[in-house]
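Below is a filled-in request sheet from our internal design queue. Each sheet records the structural input a requester submitted and the sequence that came back. We keep these sheets so that new team members can see what a complete request looks like end to end.

REQUESTER: design group, bay 2
PRIORITY: normal
MODE: inverse folding
CHAIN LENGTH: 755
BACKBONE (tokenized):
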């Protein structure tokens, strides 16, 4: 991607592929009760937990037979074991339970964000959270999935296998790797999509050796070849040379720029260390050669001595003779509990014999290796609470397609914003206003982000698939939605995952880094980089923030009435005059200041066209100081009287411009005379930071600030910003005069794609 197009994509939009619809697993006629899973293992839902769900979450326990229960995870039905003394066609009673194997969240869904799956350096680690969500439901129409019970204890005359295959893995996730970038002078400009190497990884190493220590105890030296794997990311633009060594194997890895290198080595088991083996990575190109390791792993033949483990994953081969593999484990700690082996590949729950440290099991052949999990019942994790999905405590997902949705106005919100000090639900007030005649008579569909996580992102919190999947579903309706409004603060994933305080600040997620709400729907419905639905965001942190903006919207809309029969022409012109007033601010120094003035002059020609009929008031920076205070009486008087657009071209940071026009509180522009502010400056639109309030957030939420704010979230290049703004002016003032700002943004990105 060239720099110009890249930077234009970064303008996104502080005005603020999955192969199938992500809610296809949902049956809107069924009820679902959810629970969290944070580690791989065997789980149980006992009768007491089901009773609590019946009492407090509406689960109709007494009308559900044992055979009818189902559990879903990642959109798929799990194989489960339902324990009960009574008939399978009777309800659960005290002592009964549901048992199953479940896994924590990984990067399995994140892979759909990358153009090529191999760009995801470590698919075992989620970009957003390790916590998975599973769903309990029931079905009496068709047979449900059950683990097949096996209890063959005929061990007489059996010859034990010598080993099983075991993967020992170390995932490194101490820092984010931000993916591809280009250099503008010495400034790195990152691509906002999920690009090669973007994700969580280990510390950066340059001219030193980075060592990952892998536990490799009890290797079976006479067993088959071990396989060592790793993922290395070249983390800057130069060529990289990394010498890799592990247990007598290795290679010299050559990477070009930002590139992921996936490594795979055959290792002799006798060369593995005990209790550990070192994986070493040595950079050869000096202090500028920046590299990082995402994971390292060794799958090796493991003896049947289990080192006092009380649970273990293993891959078991078919027996060479007979129809079952016999394994006689030693040094397994059963903790005085019953021991089981789950054949996860073939959905079997197999009884294990023996006591103390010695345990025997027969595993039927299945035409290939079987992924298995050995555990004692003391390691089973209890699910202690079930929560109803949806909004009405009936376990029903909302069927958004059944709502009035003619050219729908989608509003995605976080329920935290529904509370306020005044006790008023301003989210509901906002939705009601947009449904009203004064608010546009829209078919508004309000969607709680927590339900969207469950329905469209398989329960993965903070994952933007919740919004993307919802939008993709809405785009299949007979008339496509016309607006997508995100109501709540977002935080970039490369900050939110690693710090709990930042994680909780994510009220409505965004996409990628530098973060972009446009990319939540870009690529859907035949689009490329433009949003499939015009998109905006209010980065609200509280119900009070929603109230402030709603009051501005109501006042602003009152000022948009085009015909008032009780006014004569002179009165109408005077009333509407503020809408034609536009402020241009040229910043920078020297020749760049001259360039910026030229850019603004070209917009003046477009917006003073006969359709918009704008009147430009230009203010030029005339000081070499980094920040010039420009809140002169003339600017203050113009803003107090009302202006429709304020456009900056110059330098900025997240907190302001190089022409400082002061805080919005110094102005008196009441009665809905709130402008659109276009900031052609770096960083000023970054509303996705967890530690400070950006200038754009300040101006949007303040009662006398702006009605909309269009700005870069990262660094930008002047020529690209100019191209975007010129086309935006052309659309707003000419080709799309009278249409919404969001629609003009959408069309502008489409137009820029053609350049």
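RETURNED SEQUENCE:
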């Amino acid at each position: 991607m060239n720099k110009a197009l890249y930077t234009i994509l970064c303008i996104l939009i502080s005005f603020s592929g999955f192969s199938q619809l992500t809610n296809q697993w949902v049956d809107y006629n069924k009820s679902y009760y959810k629970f969290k899973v944070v580690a791989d293992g065997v789980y149980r839902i006992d009768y007491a937990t089901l009773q609590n769900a019946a009492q407090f979450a509406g689960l109709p326990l007494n009308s559900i037979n044992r055979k009818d229960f189902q559990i879903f995870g990642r959109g798929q039905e799990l194989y489960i074991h339902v324990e009960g003394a009574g008939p399978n066609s009777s309800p659960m009673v005290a002592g009964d339970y549901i048992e199953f194997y479940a896994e924590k969240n990984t990067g399995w869904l994140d892979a759909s964000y990358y153009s090529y799956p191999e760009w995801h350096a470590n698919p075992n680690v989620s970009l957003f959270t390790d916590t998975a969500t599973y769903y309990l439901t029931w079905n009496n129409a068709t047979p449900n999935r059950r683990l097949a019970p096996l209890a063959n204890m005929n061990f007489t005359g059996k010859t034990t296998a010598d080993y099983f295959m075991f993967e020992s893995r170390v995932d490194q996730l101490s820092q984010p790797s931000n993916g591809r970038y280009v250099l503008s002078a010495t400034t790195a400009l990152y691509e906002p999509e999920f690009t090669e190497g973007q994700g969580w990884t280990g510390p950066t190493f340059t001219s030193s050796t980075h060592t990952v220590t892998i536990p490799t105890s009890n290797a079976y030296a006479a067993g088959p070849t071990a396989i060592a794997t790793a993922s290395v990311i070249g983390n800057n633009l130069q060529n990289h040379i990394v010498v890799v060594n592990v247990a007598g194997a290795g290679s010299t890895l050559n990477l070009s720029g930002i590139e992921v290198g996936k490594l795979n080595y055959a290792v002799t088991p006798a060369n593995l260390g005990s209790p550990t083996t070192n994986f070493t990575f040595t950079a050869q190109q000096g202090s500028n050669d920046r590299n990082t390791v995402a994971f390292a792993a060794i799958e090796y033949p493991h003896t049947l001595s289990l080192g006092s483990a009380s649970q273990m994953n293993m891959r078991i081969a078919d027996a060479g003779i007979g129809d079952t593999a016999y394994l006689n484990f030693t040094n397994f700690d059963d903790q005085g509990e019953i021991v089981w082996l789950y054949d996860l590949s073939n959905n079997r729950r197999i009884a294990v014999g023996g006591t103390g440290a010695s345990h025997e099991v027969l595993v039927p052949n299945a035409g290939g290796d079987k992924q298995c999990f050995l555990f004692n019942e003391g390691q089973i994790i209890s699910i202690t609470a079930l929560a109803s999905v949806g909004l009405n405590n009936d376990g029903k997902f909302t069927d958004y397609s059944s709502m009035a949705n003619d050219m729908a106005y989608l509003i995605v919100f976080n329920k935290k914003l529904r509370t306020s000090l005044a006790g008023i639900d301003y989210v509901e007030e906002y939705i009601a206003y947009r449904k009203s005649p004064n608010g546009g008579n829209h078919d508004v569909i309000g969607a709680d982000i927590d339900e969207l996580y469950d329905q469209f992102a398989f329960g993965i919190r903070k994952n933007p698939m919740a919004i993307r999947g919802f939008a993709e579903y809405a785009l299949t309706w007979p008339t496509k939605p016309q607006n997508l409004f995100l109501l709540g603060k977002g935080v970039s994933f490369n900050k939110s995952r690693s710090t709990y305080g930042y994680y909780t600040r994510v009220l409505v997620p965004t996409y990628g880094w530098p973060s972009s709400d446009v990319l939540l729907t870009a690529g859907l419905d035949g689009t490329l980089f433009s949003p499939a639905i015009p998109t905006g965001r209010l980065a609200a942190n509280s119900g009070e923030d929603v109230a402030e903006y709603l009051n501005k919207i109501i006042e602003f809309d009152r000022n948009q009435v085009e015909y008032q029969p009780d006014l004569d022409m002179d009165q109408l012109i005077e009333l509407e005059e503020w809408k034609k007033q536009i402020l241009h601010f040229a910043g920078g120094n020297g020749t760049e200041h001259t360039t910026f003035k030229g850019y603004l002059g070209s917009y003046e020609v477009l917006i003073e066209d006969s359709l918009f009929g704008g009147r430009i008031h230009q203010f030029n920076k005339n000081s070499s100081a980094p920040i010039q205070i420009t809140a002169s009486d003339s600017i203050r008087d113009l803003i107090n009287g009302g202006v429709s657009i304020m456009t900056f071209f110059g330098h900025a940071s997240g907190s302001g411009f190089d022409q400082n026009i002061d805080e919005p509180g110094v102005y008196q522009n009441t009665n809905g005379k709130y402008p659109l502010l276009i900031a052609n400056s770096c960083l000023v639109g970054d509303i996705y930071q967890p530690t400070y309030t950006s200038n754009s957030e300040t101006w949007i939420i303040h009662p006398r600030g702006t009605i909309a704010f269009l700005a870069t979230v990262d660094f930008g290049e002047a020529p690209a910003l100019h191209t975007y703004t010129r086309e935006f002016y052309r659309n707003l003032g000419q080709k799309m005069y009278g249409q919404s700002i969001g629609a003009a943004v959408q069309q502008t990105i489409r137009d820029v794609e053609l350049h």
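SHEET NOTES:
- The chain has three domains: 33-146+384-388, 163-303, 400-753.
- Residues 10 and 247 are 45 Å apart (CA to CA).
FILED BY: M.R.
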